[in-house]
Amino acid sequence: MLIEDTIEDIIQGREGPRVDFKLDASSPHKIVKDIVAFANTSGGTVIIGIDDSRDVVGLSDLGKAEEVITNTTYTNTEPQLIPSIGYKTHKGKDLLVVDIQYYQGVDPIALRKGGRSVVYERVGS
To answer: Coil, strand, or helix at residue 58?
Structure first.
């Protein structure tokens, strides 16, 4: 997340090359795909607890969502990636904010998928 941007600024903006919104953590592999794509492109932020209309719905169990995303990311990426995850409250609703730094390793981050490794990059929204 860009340091000068507040959660409100990010929510009022649109999804794009460095921002993605997710309703919840019920599909952690989709979130990890976004994390990998951001890491391989220029970094970015995934905010969980926001619907497709940019309405803040929040999460009921931040700890469980964080654990699922962290474990899914760590066990399904190579090299293994540990996401930076924080909590934010916006208008009384709890959000999970995943900050992804640009990965500058020799090889890109890959997502393990069905016995193979797939590299994703974020292009547009």
So the answer is: coil
